[in-house]
């Protein structure tokens, strides 16, 4: 227990340094967490394509063993870097900091971090992000927030993915929303599909609302802490 506490304390200190670096560079950082296969990379690919028209965007993507996701994300035209974690089931602030050594953060407005697919480990590791987004697909079962409360509780936004499959799997929308909100009262929830034209529109509306209040605010007055959605 003591060793684990120390690891988390060290991570929190590194994450605070990262957050300050992001703030100084004026880069808004969004992390994505979910179970394996909930659709983080598909979601991010569409997101990067959409945002690249107006913002300078980059992405880091964590994976145990492959660079498959980075190769998919590169197709969007954004700058992408793979972080291979080996046996580690989450990204930590040190991995993110080391990956960013090669990047000039001033050259970006937005940075996305796709975490390793896992609903447990990533929950405890602050990456210095401004916004943590948890994704949950309609095929996973409505009870996931109850079974993995910490990841839903530490997220700022919940995205229900693969909405195009909702009817096929008899997704119980009301139960899912109630479960998300029982572990995180008041959290915003949006539904998306990468299979529909404009299937990410609810997410873009939410993000743009966020960016209007955060990113365009002069750096000096921007909050250093993790903000919550307006
Ligand atoms: N029908 C449907 N399938 C989707 C959608 N989004 C993703 N998928 C599919 O779901 C599978 C997993 O998607 P990924 O984007 O690789 O999921 P991931 O969360 O990045 O997976 P890991 O990185 O392995 O944790 C792929 O076959 C995708 O094509 C969606 O909105 N609708
Ligand atoms: Mg992925």
Explain how this protein is built.
The chain is an alpha/beta fold and 230 residues long. It is built from 8 helices and 7 strands; from the N terminus they run αβαβαβαββααβαβα. The protein has helices at residues 2-25, 40-51, 68-74, 93-100, 144-147, 149-153, 173-183, 201-213; strands at 28-33, 57-63, 79-84, 110-114, 131-137, 157-161, 188-191. Strands 3-2-4-1-5-6-7 form a 7-stranded parallel beta sheet, sandwiched between helices. Strand 2, helix 3 and strand 3 form a beta-alpha-beta unit. Helix 2 runs parallel beside helix 3 (68-74). The longest helix is centred in the N-terminal third of the chain and has 24 residues, at 2-25. The model is unreliable at 217-230 (pLDDT under 50). The protein binds guanosine-5'-triphosphate and magnesium ion (MG). Guanosine-5'-triphosphate binds next to helix 2.
What does the secondary structure layout of this molecule look like, with pairings?
Elements lengths: L1 H24 L2 E6 L6 H12 L5 E7 L4 H7 L4 E6 L8 H8 L9 E5 L16 E7 L6 H4 L1 H5 L3 E5 L11 H11 L4 E4 L9 H13 L17
Parallel strand pairs: 1-4, 1-5, 2-3, 2-4, 5-6, 6-7
Bound molecules: guanosine-5'-triphosphate (GTP) and magnesium ion (MG).
The site of magnesium ion has 4 residues, from α2.
